[in-house]
Design brief:
The structure is a single chain. About 55% of the residues lie in helices and about 0% in strands. The chain is mainly α. The protein has one domain. It is globular, with a radius of gyration of 19 Å. The N and C termini lie far apart (about 65 Å).
Length: about 130
């Protein structure tokens, strides 16, 4: 029995290792204003004498921004990743419609982006070890 000649193709590096260290470009990139605004809140929260209100403000505004831009890949953008880590605290809060919407948004992003999923899993372990 003779098999036809088949050309072997060499997979590209991306095919061999689909989890890249550089995130793929996304159509929905964060604005510099958003990054600046949230980094300012994060810096205020991270001060040694930060008030509980600073953390509440960080969570509230970050959650609002996530829900405004549901396709934004928070874990792909290194500037937003520290804020995304803090958003994990939301899972410890009482259930409400914003939390459910956040969970749905997170699930959609993680199911569509391998880079986000990998970063999320890594950051979740770090967050839980605090």
């Amino acid at each position: 029995m003779s098999h036809g000649s088949h050309a072997l193709t060499t997979p590209t590096e991306h095919t061999l290792n689909p989890i890249s260290t550089n995130p793929p470009p996304h159509n929905d990139s964060p604005s510099s204003e958003l990054i600046s605004e949230l980094k300012g809140l994060l810096d205020r929260h991270n001060k040694p004498n930060a008030s509980p209100e600073a953390f509440h403000e960080l969570l509230s505004l970050s959650l609002a921004r996530v829900l405004e831009q549901p396709t934004l890949h928070w874990w792909c953008h290194q500037d937003l990743r520290p804020i995304a880590i803090e958003l994990l605290h939301i899972f410890s809060l009482d259930a409400n419609s914003s939390l459910e919407h956040f969970k749905d948004t997170l699930e959609n992003v993680l199911s569509s982006c391998l880079d986000c999923t990998e970063s999320y899993q890594q950051d979740r372990r770090v967050y839980l070890s605090r």
